[in-house]
Amino acid sequence: MKQIMDSAAVGRTLMRMSHEIIEKNAECGTLYLVGIRRRGVPIAHIIAENISRFSDLEVCVGELDITLYRDDLTQQEKQPMLNGTSISFDIEGKTVVLIDDVLYTGRTARAAMEALIQLGRPSRLELCVLIDRGHRELPIRADFVGKNIPTSKDEIVLVRTPEYDAQTCVDIDIK
Predict the structure, then answer these.
(1) Is the pLDDT of residue 73 over 90?
(2) Partners of residue 62 on adjacent β-strands
(3) How does 44-56 read in b/e, with b if 16+ C-beta sit within 10 Å?
(4) 170: part of which helix (H) or strand (E)?
(5) Do residues 136 and 153 make contact, with C-beta atoms less than 8 angstroms apart?
(6) CATH number of the CATH domain containing 130
(7) pLDDT of residue 68
(8) Which parts of the chain fold into alpha helices (H)?
(9) Residue 110 near residue 80 (C-beta atoms within 8 A)
(10) DSSP state of 154
(11) Structural domain containing residue 97
(12) What total of structural domains would you count in the chain?
């Protein structure tokens, strides 16, 4: 296993991404961030804190469970574990930023868009990922990317957050 980003590098990257989101969405009075469960949620909260600290934008954060929208659900467990969606705001006609840890094939992002649109129709939907590792299977790209990391399909990118891993870093490992 090799560490490719330590805690400080992740923090600097999330700060830069927060400023990019502010710059692109400066005309919005309120910005709606939706973290994709699991590790997209803590990343969304960090970005929300950064945006609140450095702008006048109001920020609302929600959590999206895409389990039932995945196209590989039959390959997953027979009884999928549902973590629940927690979005306490109306997304209809709003600018929504979907946030995830890693963009790989694009299937998670597609499932997230489908799940989100079931809740309403945003006027604009943007995708923010900490790591883009390539190997897209669907025509999906992120609007905000922390770091592009070219990988082989035999490698795994592991984003670690204190909520789940007791540390903050990004590692790369072989399957």
Answers:
(1) no
(2) 34
(3) bbbbbebbeeebe
(4) strand 169-174
(5) no
(6) 3.40.50.2020
(7) 83
(8) 7-24, 40-54, 107-117, 162-165
(9) no
(10) T
(11) 2-174
(12) 1
